[in-house]
Amino acid sequence: MTAVPADGLDAGAEGADRAGGAAGADGGESYRLNVDGFLRTVNGASIGDSLLTVLRDTLGVTAVKDACEQGRCGACSVLLDGRLAASCTVLAADADGTRVVTVAGLGGAGLARAVRAMFLAEGAVQCGFCTPGFVVAVTDLLTRHPDADEEEIREALAGNICRCTGYGRILAAVRAVQAERGALRSGDAHSSGETQRHGETQRHSDGGPDGW
Amino acid sequence: MGGEAVSGGIGRSVRRPDGPDKASGVFRYAGDLRVPGMLHARTLRSPHPRARLGRIDAAAARRLPGVAAVVTAADVPGVATYGLIVADQPVFAAAEVRYAGEPVAAVAAVDVATARRALAAIEVDYEPLPPSTDPERVLAADAESLHPAGNLFREIDIRHGEPGVDGPVVVEDRYVVGMQDQAFLAPEAALVSPAADGGVDLLVATQWLHSDREQLAACLGIPENLVRLTLAGVGGAFGGREDVTLQIHGALLARATGAPVRIAYDRVESFLGHPHRHPARMWFRHTATADGELVSVQANVVLDGGAYASSSPAVLANAVTHAAGPYRVPHTRLRGVAVRTNNPPCGAMRGFGVPQVTIGHEAQMDRLADALGMDPVELRIRNAVRPGDVLPTGQVLGAPLPARELIQLVAARPLPPPPTADVTGLALPGGLPAAAEPGRVRRGVGYALAYKNLLFSEGMDDSSAARVRLDLTDDGTPRVRVHSACAEVGQGFVTIAGQIARTELGVEQVVLAPADTAVGSAGSTSASRQTWMSGGAVRGACVAVADRLLARVARAADLPAEVVEAPRRTLRIAAGHIVGVEAGLRIGIADALAEGPIEADYTFHHRRTTALDAEGQGDPHVAFAGAAHRAVVDVDIDLGLVRVVSMALAQDCGTVLNPLSLRGQVEGGTAQGLGLALMEELITVDGVVVNPTFHDYLLPTIADVPDLDFVAVTEPQPDAPYGVKGVGEAPTCTATPAIVAAIRAAVGRDLRRVPVRPQDLVDLPTRPDLPTGSDLPTGSDVPAGVDVPTRAGVDPAGGASTA
Ligand code: FES
Ligand code: FES
After folding, report:
1. Of A65, A171, A209, the CB nearest to B659
2. Test site for ligand 1: of A53, A56, A61, A72, most ligand atoms within 8 A of the Cβ
3. Of B425, B667, B669, which is closest to A151 when you measure between CB atoms?
4. Global pTM value
5. pLDDT tens for each residue of A83-98
6. Is the CATH number of domain A110-205 1.10.10.10?
7. Which residues contact B654 (CB under 8 A, 6 or more apart)?
8. Would an 8 Å CB–CB cutoff place B662 in contact with chain A?
9. Between B28, B236, B432, which is nearest A127 by CB?
10. Domain boundary assignment for chain A
């Protein structure tokens, strides 16, 4: 396999630029995937392999997690041309011509950075195996609905299983991102208090003593 | 540096050191590990729950291009069996298969597809035998023995007080709990490499490196020092990684091929490959005075351990010793058996035997309140244990255990607003796809109180070792290096260890060495024990390092020895410095380290407990933690769908080392209890698991779990480091019965079976091929588990009875 820079974009969730023209399959079982902004040639994969299998086992992109292979847990979430998908339910060969963005390709700035930062600040990461999928799903949700209310958040994230956290801190992280980005409705004193606290840069990641 | 306390110490919501890598996808879990030239391994499993095993012909599989090795029972050089407590489980089935899913062979090949083809090419002669799947029948005099060790893993009979003393108010019933799975999110995986010295190196996701090593060495027939394990990234555990699963298979293949082997399970194999939570059948009889004082409790618990022992004997001890709950009861007779069947093996899962009995005793407390015409909260307050009380085992309850305060606190939390007619969508039972008609929703409120033992019990001299080194980085900054074999599975030990080291040594920079077998055992990441045990070990090692550091400074400053000796110590460590209170001394830690690093080992032991005697008496548990939940549910009375509206929890947490981490543990524990109440059940038909996928085994999602209203009681545990208590298990025990109680209150049915299914709430036809759990233990005068007749006319599936 080879890796060549494709479009060089900071692959934000908003983008839907296709690099499809450059990624035409040249017949047989060899095709190319645009993964996180790099054109990757896939050789030797079986034609029935899922995108998840090709990402992890053929291309070594292990940032995408494999927990059910049935589309039931969201651990393998990616963006396909900017749309949220469970990569275990997509044939890799069908992703030829689409832009695949994993958690690793969401970029180090902007919304995805805020989502990751708040997952850490709010304690939404325990074993962390669900986290890459959640970060993709939350980034997608807040791209489309920056001010999603609680019911919309719960509905949008119901395809992502977390076995460790019980979801409380994940919900808190989503709300904290919204608060930080000024998307929450005004007049919510508790949330604006949180904004202040989380706005601080803390060298030792040292939160307050009164976390409950 | 102005402040005296170093930042990032204990008591603060310090963030996880592994968090950034986990959130960016860089963190390597066991299943993410790859090395050049590695082979891929897969396991062949029996489709039959019981069969005589004839010839295994792997010749065709071995001839397939790309197949490097096939191993079976014939290739195990050492002991043929393994196990956490007793080695009764074959590495590969030999002569007889005892559960559907039991490993028969394993294959290593150049890729996964070839390994799968090789599995299909192995010919196995099975002669199916009738499986024994009813845990109440396997101890009958005429029952067939399923294993040379017999069908009884353990029997416990606790007698306390006077036999036959009853109160005038009596409630008696039977309860069934289904088989829950840990369903940690990252399936089992390991990377196993053969070593030049004839040993083997494993990178593996496990809960207990040294226990794995002991079992691996025995089965491989090589000394333990040739078996080296390093913890790979672990994606959750919850008890499901306490047993060996793929470790020995992978090691056999690595040694057979001389190549590194990646062995990994997919979700189906994960469901079949590790032991589950024991299904339980339980009978309880509670009696009380007319004004609501408990007089006697009798219980009879049957745990289905499945085909092999795993931790069944210890799970049973927990179930039976906790069967009366955290209540003062003068007269108790608590019995139980853990038995062998041809069902899947069961072992450790969060709560370890206590969730099952809590479901029973809390249902009984509600029934008793009903019979007395008393408020269920009031009944619990009246009977709650207090420190100094004698428990059914004769153990005197230590402090703190604020059972009464917990139930009072949780009952005082504000209730959610009542359901209104205009709610829609997720706010209704069934959520978006099947939302109830607003007028057809009933609200219920339920409570549960429990206590759960902490650490290992029954006389085990459990310990944890840690090594701490204080040195300077290349740029001269002081740094603490902590080495512990504690398995970080998501619970946050890596965070806590750093907080402890910062607090004790006044140094901000802490690095954790990889958890491995190069250091002494830290014991298992289970039994709510690691913050106490391995936290205690890290603290002990840090204190030893600090003592040497202070002694060095005192020597250099020509101060008398007593300035570093308790109780007259006047030298101490502050943030980054050693300060002398009277001597006016202030020396940077970095300066004190100029003459060399300081290193110390420490092994932490908890107080000694004792085994149970023939009457079930002793001092079996180190300590307990209490919890009380209140659940509020809405039930769709047409479709039998339940929505948990709110959960409140009051928990006895000891000193809190990391509030954010605590919150994560209690929320996660609550969600797993919610799953057991409403949806999580691994269903077997004639011993075969019929739903081993995430499509069919339902887990709570963010749409199912409400925000948790949490109150922590933080009275320190006197004999624990900093006064900590383990916090992960207690809320799992209480969440389930509180939700079931709330559903009972909403619909007015008895609900003796958990999980509660729609057909238990409305009269829907039940599929005849699914077990209803209709055979239950009964009668206090029947020997535990032996040939128990069932009482006619009771359908524990709940279809026929109403309160
Ligand atoms: S692995 Fe794709 S949804 Fe679970
Ligand atoms: S943090 Fe472990 S599954 Fe979510």
Report:
1. A209
2. A72
3. B425
4. 0.92
5. 999 999 999 999 999 9
6. no
7. B400, B625, B714, B715, B716, B717, B720, B723, B724, B725, B727
8. yes
9. B236
10. 3-105, 110-205
**B620-649, pLDDT tens digit by residue?**
999 999 999 999 999 999 999 999 999 999
How far B540 CA lies from chain A's nearest CA (Å)? Answer: 24
With cut-offs at 50, 70 and 90, classify the pLDDT of residue B434.
low
**In what helix (H) or strand (E) does residue B552 lie, and over which residues does it extend?**
helix B530-556
Which ligand 1 atom lies nearest to the CA of residue A88? Answer: 2
**Number of Cβ within a 10 Å radius of residue B63:** 10
Q: What is the mean pLDDT of residues A60-68?
A: 97
> Which contacts of B166-169 are long-range, i.e. CB under 8 A and separated by 24 or more positions?
B166/B287, B166/B295, B166/B296, B167/B287, B167/B288, B167/B289, B167/B290, B167/B293, B167/B294, B167/B295, B167/B296, B168/B287, B168/B288, B168/B289, B168/B290, B169/B287, B169/B288, B169/B289, B169/B290, B169/B368, B169/B371, B169/B372
* Domains, chain B, with CATH or none: 19-26+462-604 (3.30.365.10), 33-130+186-235+241-273 (3.90.1170.50), 155-180+276-457+612-760 (3.30.365.10)
**Is B664 a pocket residue for ligand 2 (Cβ < 6 Å)?**
no
pLDDT per position as a tens digit, B642-685: 999 999 999 999 999 999 999 999 999 999 999 999 999 999 99
pLDDT of residue B763: 81
| The pLDDT of residue B336 is above 80 | yes
- CA-based nearest residue to B189, from B42, B15, B78, B327: B42
CA distance B155 to B785: 9
Chain segment B467-504, per-residue pLDDT in tens: 999 999 999 999 999 999 999 999 999 999 999 999 99
Instruction: Please tell me the predicted confidence (pLDDT) of residue A191.
Output: 40
Query: Among B185, B241, B267, B494, which residue has the most ligand 2 atoms within 8 Å of its CB, making it the best to mutate?
Result: B185
Distance separating alpha carbons of residues B90 and B332, to the nearest angstrom: 39
Residues of chain B with pLDDT > 90: what percent?
89
| pLDDT the model gives residue A29 | 67
**Summary mean pLDDT of chain B:** 93
Residues 470-499 of B with CB under 8 A from A: 489-492
- Rounded to the nearest whole angstrom, what is the distance from the C-alpha of residue B279 to the centroid of ligand 2? 25
Its ipTM equals 0.94
Rounded Cα distance, B302 and B290, in Å: 31
Interchain contact, A169 vs B663, CB within 8 Å: yes
- B34 interfaces chain A, CB cutoff of 8 Å: yes
CATH architecture for residues A3-105: Roll (3.10)
